[in-house]
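Fold in tokens:
===
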Amino acid sequence: MKEIEESYIEIEAKMADPEVANNPQEMQVLGKKHADLSSVVDAFRNYENVLQGIKDAQEMISGDDAEMRELAKEELASLEERLPELEHNLQILLLPKDINDDRRVIIEIRAGAGGDEAALFASDLYRMYTRFAERERWRTELISASETGIGGYKEIVFRVDGVGAFSRLKFESGVHRVQRVPETEASGRIHTSTATVAALPEAEDVDIEINPQDLKVDTYRASGAGGQHVNMTDSAVRITHIPSGVVVTCQDERSQIKNRAKAMQFLRTKLYDFELQKQTAAMAAERKGQVGTGDRSERIRTYNFPQNRLSDHRINLTLYKLDQILDGDIYELIQALQEADEAEKLKALSV
């Protein structure tokens, strides 16, 4: 912590240097480092102040003034009560940061078991995430969608662009299960359907190098909503990365060039995620210190409509406000998952 504080002070001194202040690029780099360290340094200084307060109170207790001794005892008890929480907060702040946390996120939602009902559930999940993004004032951008014609999606892929988007949504990967009575069910019987979500950190150009010779690019006519244009031009793009077998599509834009650019970005993200998954699988010990960001086939959550209940099976959390959650109010869920992940990482470090 002392080393971090010294580094923080050095950065502040550099930022106060007139020569550095006139260099926008260097100031941007230093500003980011300063912002990253500020919360840690503030917490450490607060911790040190409490330690000093404990030391001062202990000295006062050993003094001759009886009234001051009583006041010091009360102060000591109060400060010692605060200490464990401050130490815990410092431990959390010092946990290794996920290098992808500040990236944008690309979310894939695919209907699973349950036919039309699963496709409608995929649509519900899409709305939940986009409503959450609206609450955060983040931007969403559709990449591709395969509609069912009754308001559902066989598959939908979209980008979420906002500060810390991946850090907030990375725990959504896995199988989501819904239990409800379909509108077409005359007997009122509850059906169970599933949809799979993958939350992927968006790759930068420098992360993945793609050889153009490894690509097979097909163009075709887009399908679904979009007016007359949809059936007039081959604007949709499908790109196959031959070595890995990864296939991506984009049909959201009217321009084939724009669709190709989006598809290439999506391909980079898929290949980047593929490499991350390999690394995660190879680090079994580290994987135990994570909450649900590894196995995409894991059933992570149940959405029960008759009981207005959501259950996250990874952390044994149950919330009876499914209607609010599906309207984008997933803050309590995200916070619980982040806290559980931090607890698992702390546990892994102590072993």
Q: What stands out?
A: The radius of gyration is 26 Å.
